[in-house]
Amino acid sequence: MTNRNYIFTSESVSEGHPDKVCDRISDAVLDAFLAQEPEARVACETFATTNRVVIGGEVGLSDQAKLSEFISCVDQIARDCVKDIGYEQEKFHHETIEITNLLHEQSAHIAQGVDASRNKEEGAGDQGIMFGYATRETPDLMPAPIQYSHAILRRLAQVRKNGKEPTLGPDAKSQLSVRYEGGKPVGVSSIVLSTQHLDENMTSNDVRAVVEPYIQETLPEGWIDAKTQWHVNPTGKFVIGGPDGDAGLTGRKIIVDTYGGAAPHGGGAFSGKDPTKVDRSAAYAARYLAKNIVAAELAEKCTIQLSYAIGISQPLSIYVDTFGTGEVSGEAIEAAIAAAIDLSPRGIREHLMLNKPIYQRTAAYGHFGRSPDEDGGFSWEKTDLVDALTSAI
Q1: Does the annotation count 273 as an active-site position?
Q2: Per residue in 225-246, pLDDT tens?
Q3: Is the C or the N end of the chain the one with fewer CB within 10 Å?
Q4: Identified catalytic residue from 111, 247, 332, 338
């Protein structure tokens, strides 16, 4: 029998975390290329450490004459990202960091798999497996531990940037241990929050006094009680943050980016990859499908797995797991999915409108559980496939 009473923990990291600085820069580069050309090809990786940012990878435009021009703009894109995040430290400052730009033209061998697959349709940009997940634990159909871990850090970033809490720095981590009863989240057994602070004289207690009201207002009423354990800056001072304190790299926070460990992960990172890469686009499609299945009341929770091969258009497999909560069989849902949406790479991009500069905003606080934007951002969070799925059952 499945354990229905338990504690589950997830963590989030802020936009100023070293890895998230790198994700932000990689996605900002992607957005710049997509703004120039919707079919641009980008696979951009970023590394950051003390006073240095290194950017590399492959990019492609149909107009080769413009490629060098756009590659040369990347330095300023990186500085703008670091400035917006808020880094003006002596050893990591948006004006003085040294930037090494190693971007180059996309490999023709990779391009041929995408552009001219054997069935003459656009193929997947790589092989791999991708997962999507949804659950009725929260209004956004996300697992509660990761959703509220993100929400805490988003709130702290807001008050840091609007000047209400000027002592907070950009680098932070949150971690929530959520207590479940009968399979439903009912409270928080422990809260871990480590945040950079700019006043060297602040103690852990001082930091807690700043952040606790925002954490209290972010979590559902009654989730914090006298038994909740608090660990705020448990190691003491946290003044040196960001890449000066610890090196960062694109794609190292894949569990933070998705479901906080509550669902499987295929292993592929998102940031810096254009939507021909199914690591990104098919993971978005899988979340879209899982969320619409739960929104359609076909299941209380749902995991979707998709698999692809490079150069092949359609997924090799579609797998559905509703954890015994399904109103219909998994096989019936799998058949409905195939009837309701074209899951080829181009079909996904067109259905979800992914060939737009919408990715920089995804680089922190999760790719899922966000509200769809009017310009197409977070389109995979829409629940507009409900009727098509239920009609196909």
Answers
A1: yes
A2: 999 999 999 988 999 999 999 9
A3: N
A4: 247
